[in-house]
TrEMBL record:
Component of the RNA exosome core complex (Exo-9), composed of EXOSC1, EXOSC2, EXOSC3, EXOSC4, EXOSC5, EXOSC6, EXOSC7, EXOSC8 and EXOSC9; within the complex interacts with EXOSC4 and EXOSC7. The catalytically inactive RNA exosome core complex (Exo-9) associates with the catalytic subunit EXOSC10/RRP6. Exo-9 may associate with DIS3 to form the nucleolar exosome complex, or DIS3L to form the cytoplasmic exosome complex. Exo-9 is formed by a hexameric base ring consisting of the heterodimers EXOSC4-EXOSC9, EXOSC5-EXOSC8 and EXOSC6-EXOSC7, and a cap ring consisting of EXOSC1, EXOSC2 and EXOSC3. This is Exosome complex component RRP4. It is found in: Cytoplasm; Nucleus, Nucleolus. The keyword Mitochondrion does not apply.
Length: 293
């Protein structure tokens, strides 16, 4: 097996080109945002010498008179309706604790999941005893944020059949700020693979399922062998996501699909080479700008 070894001095330096929002909206800790006293102080800001300063590095956001700074790198701050991917870390009484890259562990209540077969009834003591048969420690799940507690803890639910236990695939972790909020985060890409873009920065790539969850309630996983072409598509998508994240490009279905197409002339293992990342991502950014995405 060939190994690519490089000297530190021969590393490729990123292109000094900024794509995206107005660079004037980017601030670092201590920067003066405004001297106008008519603005209200929001998250990530503080007042000093009658000026509004930034307390974190990030993007300035203005909503009417409220000024806040959204950090570029942060833990996930959940909002109701967000799609998240998490890992079960504990089975408790009538609930599961889920790790979702948030400041606190999230909670999935027994009453917030589909029963096997999609039955609609009150949860019984027998259901509580069977909890570990539904979901156990280490299982990956997709879910939706149902509520945000006063202390910041997230309450999840998997009542829709599109949510539930995840089977065969690969998990990619990126910064939550890179995942673009859209109406849908479940995408069947025309490359033989599906992708779930979690708002919490966890991205799940798996073979496209041709059979719906149906009567299983989202608890049974398909363990059939995955073909070589599907595995290669999943591996290429994974490297494309990491390449976009390396260059701080927003992740959504179009940007990932364009990166997949632009990387076709390279082997999967070569996509994460620094010079290839720069070339492929620059082509994607130009294409996105031309189409106004």
């Amino acid at each position: 097996m060939s190994v690519d070894i490089r000297l530190a001095k021969s590393r490729v330096v990123g292109l000094d080109v900024y794509h995206g929002d107005d660079p004037g909206n980017i601030v670092t800790p201590g920067d003066v945002i405004t001297a106008d006293t008519g603005f209200m102080r929001g998250h990530g800001t503080y007042m000093s010498e009658d000026c509004l300063h930034s307390s974190v590095a990030g993007m300035v956001e203005r909503v009417n008179k409220l000024v806040s700074v959204r950090p570029l790198k942060t833990r996930y701050n959940g909002e109701i309706g967000d799609v998240v991917i998490g890992r079960i870390i504990e089975v408790s009484q009538k609930k599961w604790r889920v790790e979702t890259h948030s400041r606190m562990d999230s909670i999935l209540m027994l009453s917030s999941v589909n029963l096997p077969g999609g039955e609609l009834r009150r949860r019984s003591e027998e259901d509580e005893k069977m909890m570990r048969n539904y979901l156990k420690e280490g299982d990956l799940i997709s879910a939706e944020v149902q509520n945000v507690m006063s202390d910041g803890c997230l309450s999840l639910h998997t009542r829709s059949l599109k949510y539930g236990k995840l089977g065969q695939g690969t998990l990619v972790k990126v910064s939550p700020s890179l995942v673009l909020r859209r109406k849908t985060h479940f995408h069947n890409l025309p490359v033989g693979a599906s992708i779930i873009l979690g708002n919490n920065g966890y991205i799940w790539i798996c073979p496209t399922e041709h059979v719906e969850a149906g009567e299983t309630g989202g608890y049974e996983t398909n363990l059939q062998p995955v073909s070589r072409s599907e595995r290669e598509a999943i591996a290429r998508l994974r490297n494309c996501v990491l390449a976009l994240a390396d260059q701080n490009v927003l992740l959504f279905d179009t940007s990932i699909l364009y990166t997949f197409e632009a990387s076709q002339k390279y082997a999967v293992k070569d996509i994460l080479k620094p010079e290839v990342i720069l070339e492929v991502v620059d082509l994607v950014q130009q294409r996105l700008e031309l189409e106004g995405s």
